[in-house]
Structures are given as structure tokens and as C-alpha cells.
Specification:
ten-stranded mixed sheet; elongated; 2 domains; alpha+beta
């Protein structure tokens, strides 16, 4: 083997060693990425139904509200009526409605929900089970810390 051939083999081995070392270093370090999208708020809240069927600590809507039950839809709409968030009602739980009167506590059925938004907007409508719902400004939502309490019945 001549001197020039030997030097080419050594150079090739050196390049392969450096390539392997570089690949090993980059594989062990996670790739750093930066997101340009800000964290979006999550709309959370409760829906209180005053006309309810109660079974132990669980409940669901009754009469004209019998469609209000666990799994029912909650939709968040923007000012143009486009869906920007959605959720399902949690299991209904028995909860007091106002303070006791004459020693009697009136109860209703309270459902929680949590809808992640896909974008922010100037106006937010919270629609429960296709019944329409109130509209809030962005400032209103921030003031309520993105927690919306609604009631039916």
C-alpha cells in the first residue's frame, strides 16, 4: 500500500468517526422548537339544571330538560357562529340551589364542562345541547377567568 492510499484510508476513517460522533450527540439532545402560537384559554364552567331527576349523588335533567345529561354537547362559537371549542357535559352531581329556606334545601343538578379553544375571538357564545346560549366579550371572559356558570329551569 502506498503512502497516498494509506492517507486516503486514514482520512476516510476520520470523516466517518466525526460523522458518527456528531449523529450520536444530536440524537441524545432533543430538538429545540419554539411555538409562535400563544397558549389558548380553556373555557370551563358549570351548568345548573333546577328541574332534575336525582339518584343518590348523581342526577340528570328532567321534564323539558331530560336531554341535559352526561355527554351532552357544549359548543363555543365565535361572533360569526363558527365553532371554536367543544366539550361534553360531565356526570351530573346534586348541588344546592341557593340558601336553605325554612330549613329546606332545594337541590338541582350541576354539570361541569371544559372546552379547549382553537383560537381566540372578540365574542364567545356558549351553547348547551343546541339550546343557544349567552354571548360574552373577550374582556368578559378574561374577567370571569374563562369560567362560565349557566342555569336552566
Amino acid at each position: 500500500m502506498t503512502y497516498h492510499v494509506l492517507m486516503k484510508h486514514i482520512a476516510a476513517l476520520l470523516v466517518m468517526s466525526l460523522t458518527v460522533a456528531a449523529c450520536s450527540a444530536s440524537a441524545s439532545e432533543p430538538e429545540k422548537t419554539t411555538s409562535t402560537q400563544p397558549d389558548l384559554p380553556t373555557v370551563t364552567g358549570v351548568l345548573m339544571v333546577n328541574d332534575a331527576t336525582v339518584e343518590g349523588e348523581w342526577c340528570e335533567g328532567n321534564g323539558g330538560f331530560d336531554d341535559i345529561q352526561a355527554g351532552a354537547s357544549v359548543i363555543v362559537l365565535d361572533g360569526e357562529g363558527n365553532t371554536i371549542g367543544a366539550a361534553r357535559l360531565d356526570e351530573g352531581r346534586v348541588a344546592p340551589v341557593g340558601p336553605p329556606e325554612d330549613g329546606i334545601q332545594i337541590v338541582g343538578c350541576e354539570f361541569g364542562y371544559e372546552a379547549e379553544l382553537v383560537r381566540e375571538t372578540s365574542f364567545y357564545t356558549i351553547e348547551m345541547v343546541g339550546r343557544g346560549g349567552p354571548t360574552f366579550t373577550h374582556a368578559d371572559m378574561e374577567a370571569m377567568d374563562w369560567f362560565v356558570e349557566l342555569s336552566l329551569g
